[in-house]
Every structure is written in structure tokens, then in C-alpha cells.
Amino acid sequence: MNLSFGYNTNGFAHHKLEDALEIIADCGYRGVALTLDNYHCNPFTVEPADLSRLRQLLDKLQLRVVIETGARYLLNPQRNHHPTLVSSEGRQIRLEFLRRAVDIAADLHAECVSFWSGRPDPEVPEHQAWDWLVTGCLQLAEHSKRRGVQLAFEPEPGMLVDDMAKFEVLKKHISSARFGLTLDIGHVFCTETAPFRQVYGKFANLVRNIHIEDIRDRKHEHLMFGEGQLDFVAILRVLNDNKYTGLINVELTRDSHRATEVARASIEFLTATCQKTPPPTSSSAARPAPSASH
Questions:
Q1: DSSP of 117-132, one letter per residue?
Q2: For labeling, which of 32, 47, 116, 293 is most exposed (least CB within 10 Å)?
Q3: Element (H, E) at 39
Q4: Strands 64-68 and 113-115
Q5: How many domains, the chain?
Q6: Is residue 291 part of a domain?
Q7: Which CATH number covers residue 269?
């Protein structure tokens, strides 16, 4: 299989960015999902010279890069993932953050900028949240077009756009060719009932970025490979059969306390999985389990 794996820096929260990149490259990854955060290329404080040095380091380490925007407390030190594009207050702060992420992506020659909708406040009517989201996405798509950057929207369990059906609704409003999809494989097994091959096939032409982790019992909790129920031989075969050429980024946010160990074990697992002889194509990409069968 000719697949390219990366690692998300949100799993290296306790490392300096330069050290994290060195470790990721040393493990054998071919790319990095760079989550802009307080101490990792903060878009509100980073200088052009910093970006130039970072680009040089990525080139030296031969790492492809995508930009991720899921920092927990960058915009509000007291509230996780807030404000968002669907918040009753502060939406312009989120949009400015995303615009800066696009600018950084342009400077780093990143393959895309990944982002999500956010969770609306309880008092916000759903139709109002959708109107805010569409407006924000349209404005961001215009900025991305000017900067020559690809967007990749991620359906996220618990947020306004939490599954593939709602992504379809959103995409109908955003006609820009710059507006693609981040497909989190674990999320698919949390929210979708169709076989993974069918889900991926339906959206393959829009996928610009992939997240990968294990999942158990359709619970949205990113697990180390082997701790959940997903059949990664079948999953990677689907990606290979569909000739996916983007990065497949390991996302184990809560494992920063053992980042180096988990990063190395993850690439060893994925590399070994790619080398296994794929079984006959199946309509399921999960091991048989009553609560996680697809």
C-alpha cells in the first residue's frame, strides 16, 4: 500500500514544536498535522521569520504538512473550543483565527486547513446556528481562494455538523472547489451505519485530509490502535483501493504524556498493517461486534 501517514501535534502538547517535529520524522512519519496552539505556532504571535524557519525545518525533515485548528484553549483560556463559528458571541474571533490559519498554510505550503463547526450554545436556535456557520464558511472559502489554500471541513460528534449527512447539507451551500472534507475514520464508526467502504466511496472526491485512531462501542473516544474494535487492514485497503494520496494523520490528543512512545508504536502498527495481505473486500471495516458492526 502506498499510503502516507502523519501525526497530529496535539498529541505532543508538552513538547516544543521543533522537538515534536524531529521525533515525528525520526519515527518514520511522512507528514505532520500541525495544530496551531498557544506554544505551537500561535497564529496571533508568530512572526514571518518564525514561519520561514519552520518551513525550512519541514523541508529538512521531509515532512508534508496540514494545518489543524482544534486547539482547546487558544481563543478562551477558560472555555474549551470557544468561541466557534456558531457561538452567540465571539464568532469573528474564530473567523479571524481561521483566516490566520489559512495565511500560515499558504506560507508553509500546507496541503489544507482543517476545521469544524463547533457546538451551538443552548439558547441558539438551530436555524440560526446554521446561518452563522454557512456565512462563516463562505467568508473563509473566499479568503482561501485568494491565498490558494484548500479547506477541509471535519464533521465532529457532538457539534452542529456531526455526521456525513449534515456535511452534505453544508456542502450544498458552499460550492467553492476550495471546500473539501476532513474524514476522521473513528468518527465514521461513531456516527454512520453504512459500511465504511460505502461511506468513503461516496465522499472520496472531497476528502483532503484523514484522521485515524481506534474506537470502541461507537463511543467518541480516540483510542490507541488495538484498544478498540476497528479492522485497520480493511480500512486501509479501502483508502488504497480509492487511491487516496493525502495524509492519514494519527490523532491521539490525550496521549501527550507518552507522546514519543505512542507515536512510535502507532507508525509501527500502521506500517505492519499495510504490509499484511488484505482480505477479500468486505462490506464491513470493523470487527464483528454488536455495538460497532458496520
A1: --PPPTTS-HHHHHHH
A2: 47
A3: none
A4: parallel
A5: 1
A6: no
A7: 3.20.20.150
